[in-house]
Amino acid sequence: MRILLKGGRILDPSQELDIAGSLLIENDQVVAFGPGLNDASADDVYDCHGLWITPGLVDPHVHLREPGDPHKETIATGTQAAAAGGYTTICCMPNTNPPLDSPSLVDFILDRSASPGSGGVFVAPVGALTKGMDGKQLSDLFALKRAGIVAASDEGFPIQDSMVMTKAMEFCFQLDLPIMAHCEDESLSRGGSMNEGAMSAMLGLKGIHRSAEEIAVMRNCLLSLHTRCQLHVMRVSTWGAVEMIRQAKYLDAPVTCEVSPLHFTFTEEAIGEFDTNFKALPPLRTRIDIDLLLEALNDGTIDCIASDHSPHASHEVDVPFEEAPFGSVGLESTVGVTLTRLTHTGVLSPLETVRKLSTTPARILRLEAGTLKPGETPVAQVTVIDPDLEWTLDRNKSFSKSRNTAFHGMHLKGKPVLTFCGSEIYRDALFGNHRFVEA
Amino acid sequence: MIRHVLGIRQLEVREIEHLLELGTDFKKRIVEGRSVPEIKQKVVGMLFFENSTRTRVSFEQAAYYLGMKTANFSSAGSSMSKGETLKDTILTLRHERLDGLVMRHRMSGAATLAARFFGGPVVNAGDGQHEHPTQALGDALTILERKGRIEGLSVAIVGDVEHSRVARSNAWLLSKMGADIRFVGPRTLMPDTMTMLPGKVCHDLPTGIAGADVIICLRLQRERMLDGLFSSVGEYASMYQINRETLAFARPDCLVMHPGPINRGVELDDPAADSDQSAINAQVENGIFVRMACLYWAFGQEGMGKNFPQAIAAAKAVSKPKGKVKA
Ligand SMILES: [Zn+2]
User: Fold this and answer.
1) CB-side exposure of B32: number of CA atoms within 13 Å?
2) Which pTM was predicted?
């Protein structure tokens, strides 16, 4: 079986490549790309004129909710949403029920994600850093790593005790295992449900002060600097946190970070009249934070973009603001929002956009992904994006089980239209039939 | 037409004026023993997730005067305390064929959520630290009666602003009506950023109440002390208590108000609470009439209340009630 993606714009940051050309997939592997590829012997030809041909996208931060909360999402529905969002590799977070702190649970996730009902993307599990994510005793990280975790994290229950965090970093350095850290000083954030600022004052909601994030970012960066443990800061939201990371990088600490589309798109004011779809952790901040997040995306201080796909059922979301869970689904909106907010506005070039959505997250987590180089990924991982496709996000047209999105009704420009992980795993209805020629 | 009274923040000036006018009109009729237009055959649910005998009784009085039937719900022992979501409770009440809801809840925005799912008018009887619109309307009616105007007045709201729905509703209402608002209190009991609330912040009491026409004291919750937000009741009182000494900084005819219940000797001393300058009892009574106004308006009743300036004049005239008011 020979599949030709013909006449697109090939963007591969792993090779600093931005050229016009075609790409050939043969027996589920990328075998060649470049200008002047002949389609004479191809079985299927996809006309990619005006489209981007990129390495399959990589999402470092997804919640699949299995085991424990299949009413929010399952591995099957979550991976289908990932494929529709242009992803071929996603990292799933350990805050399941029970938390992902034993090798058998890692096996379960890897089995489920490889089953025929799933979306066909690679799932790279992130293990719990401490047992039960209670912030006290380290998980069996050696065994977890052998079972296949790519990083360790306590996600929404960050380790508060600095000594525990130090020991975690020392051991993870020894294991060569990155730590993904949600940074929050709970003594400052406890009971808060939105940014502490003008809006929380108006709505009478307890705020989460920015320093709750910044103090934890600073502590973790310093511990990373001193232990040499690789630290990935999850979804930064304040300009101060970005400054801490910039400083850590200047000091040559092994620190990277991500941002989610929620945080570079919306301010605290989006909450309006207590709209729980905009309840995020860390909370949505202010205009100046967004401006400086964009600057940090542009100058590379922010390494990559994560959906932080956080599905919740409607009965969990239609509650008073303080009771609502944090987060928004994002697998199927991240590319559209990123292109609309960052690429078409000139914050990121097309090549940098793909780098932040694919090559860099793959590099940070040492995944066999994020490149079009033949033989460097287990199977071909290729995404085709129509950068100019205009569409309106409708939460009811989603593969995810949950509808809690902050982006419902948003007019977007840019959409993944084809995803290959080995074979084709997603073809968008908006990818015109005329573009596809079957031999 | 169905309307909600969720917060003063969302009301337009003419709507606030209309509600005050209705409140004045209702008061006049009741004080003079005249009839009041009734909203017959409507049942309003009194949904109090947080205990408040004062506010509940005031709403029951208002409903009684309007000829409405009330159905009482309290959270203890009901399905509300058995893990049912607020949304499901509201949907159930809707299908119990209640016509309207008066709701008190400890979470900010709860009334807004109820209004989304209920289908009939919802009147917020206090939601968390967000708003207490009927308290502010009663306070405004009291100020109108005693001062004859709101526009141009200088109003100091003193105390725990951060945790006070009364502070927010009063600030919105009085500023929309043209008063100048100052929030006075320690920095630990004041939100960090006040740019979306209408008023200036002052941490020093004498400066904050200098030249004030009205002082609204807020209730101090002693549990804030345990959270470390103030050191002791004694220190708070020594810095922020309204008494004869501190009242000297305000205008001589300054009105002293408090939403109750008062911690005597803390927010106010006895002479300040009981003097002629105090409007605390009038606040309680006027609460009933503005709650009548809110129910009447929320249920889309028309016919009363057409002329605001006249209503203000009338308000002054009835400020010394002659008849007996059941309160
Ligand atoms: Zn997350």
Assistant:
1) 13
2) 0.93
Residues of A within 8 A of B103 (CB-CB) are: none
A321 inside 8 A of chain B by CB: yes
pLDDT at B67 over 50: yes
Min distance B114 CA to chain A CA atoms (Å): 9
pLDDT of B1: 79
Over residues B291-302, the pLDDT tens digits come to 999 999 999 887
Q: With 50 as the cut, is the pLDDT of residue B322 above it?
A: no
Own/partner pairs, B8-14, CB within 8 angstroms, 24+ separation: B8/B131, B8/B133, B8/B136, B8/B137, B8/B168, B8/B169, B8/B172, B8/B173, B8/B176, B9/A202, B9/B131, B9/B168, B9/B169, B9/B172, B10/A273, B11/B133, B11/B176, B13/B176, B13/B177
Q: In whole numbers, what is the pLDDT of chain B averaged over residues?
A: 91
Domain ranges of chain A: 2-53+381-438, 56-364
Domain A56-364 maps to which CATH number in 3.20.20.140, 3.40.190.150, 3.40.50.11540, 3.30.1780.10?
A: 3.20.20.140
Q: Are B155 and B179 in contact (CB under 8 A)?
A: yes
Both structure tokens of A145: 């790593």
Report residue B323's pLDDT band, with 50, 70 and 90 as the boundaries. very low
* Radius of gyration of the CA atoms of chain B, in A: 19
By the CB < 8 Å criterion, does A200 face chain B? yes
SS3 assignment, position A354: helix
Alpha helices in B214-279 (DSSP H): 223-226, 233-240, 244-247, 270-274
The C-alpha angle B30, B36, B41, rounded to 5 degrees, equals 130
Fold of A2-53+381-438: Urease, subunit C; domain 1 (2.30.40)
Q: Write the DSSP string, A185-212.
A: -HHHHTT--EESSHHHHHHT--EE-HHH
Say if residue A70 is exposed, middle or buried (CB neighbours under 10 Å; 0-12, 13-18, 19+).
middle
Q: Which of A70-79, A205-214, B90-99 has the lowest mean pLDDT?
A: B90-99
For each of the domains in chain B, give its residue range(s) and CATH number, in order of start. 13-131+286-301 (3.40.50.1370), 133-281 (3.40.50.1370)
Alpha-carbon distance B187 to nearest alpha carbon in chain A (angstroms):
13
ipTM over 0.90: yes
**pLDDT digit string, tens, across residues A393-418:** 999 999 999 999 999 999 999 999 99
DSSP label at A93?
P
CA dihedral B70, B73, B79, B82 (to 10 degrees): 170
Residue in chain A closest to B165 (alpha carbons) equals: A204
Predicted confidence (pLDDT) at residue A188 exceeds the cutoff of 70:
yes
Residue B135 is labelled as binding a ligand: yes
- B155-195 pLDDT tens trace: 999 999 999 999 999 999 999 999 999 999 999 999 999 99
Query: What average pLDDT does this structure show over A256-261?
Result: 98
Pick from A188, A273, A279, A323 the residue to mutate for testing the B interface (most B CBs within 10 Å): A273
Q: In the annotation, is A308 catalytic?
A: yes
Between the CA of residue A310 and those of A38, A135, A202, A217, A419, what are the distances in Å? 43, 22, 27, 22, 22
Q: Is the pLDDT of residue A182 over 60?
A: yes
Contacts of A321 in chain B (CB under 8 A): 107-109
**Biggest distance spanned by C-alpha atoms of chain B:** 56
Task: Please identify which residue in the block is written with the tokens 């020979």.
Answer: A2
Cβ atoms of residues A23 and A4 within 8 Å = yes
Distance from CA of A215 to the nearest CA of B (A): 18
Distance B193 CA to ligand 1 centre (A): 28
- The strand pair at A194-195 and A207-208 is best described as parallel
Mean pLDDT of A11-26: 96
Cβ-count burial B115-154 (b if 16+ within 10 Å, e if not): bebbbbbbbbbbbbbbbbbbbbbbbbbbbbbbbeebeebb
